[in-house]
Amino acid sequence: MLSVRLRAGLIRLIGNREGVSAIEFSMIAPILLLILMGSIELPRAYMVGKRLDNATATMADLISRGSYADLKPIFAATGAISNPYDVSSASIVLTAAGTYSNGSSPTTKVCSSAESNGQAYAAGASLGAPPAGMTRNGDRFVVSEVTMVYRPIFPVLSKMTSWTFRYKKVWPVRGGDIYNGQSEVVLPGGKPCPA
Asked: Is 135 part of any domain?
């Protein structure tokens, strides 16, 4: 049996309401912090993705207009479009390609490719089936690809540290030089598409 003194102490402890708000706050604080981090991180990730998508389309549009001796200004456009977000670690691959018919099914092949922080395609490499609207033999188009691992402000959210943005835009050639009767773009270090 409990002593009278111990019993009185337990009754006082059970009836005591001091510190209840501190305990409640300690249970709610982590949830509030997660909500705060999420309300900052999710919109930021969305905007980085949107700007990379816009940059991918812009680069495809720019290189589709003609051949360039130097692509540094085109690659720099990614940083300008994505400002104020740091996208210097983004992998960019620009490719000029053509559609070829070998028998019944058309295929696409790389004519020239250039990169920044990435791996350019080898000339003549197959890109698979042609994109929609580019299925005729001799069609020429450009492809802009951007890949970047997202770096969150709060790396505590483990799912966000493994996000990788991947964007790919296909654009018809709108300018360039005439080779083999087709208007096409030749990227630096590359050659025109074979006939």
From this structure: yes
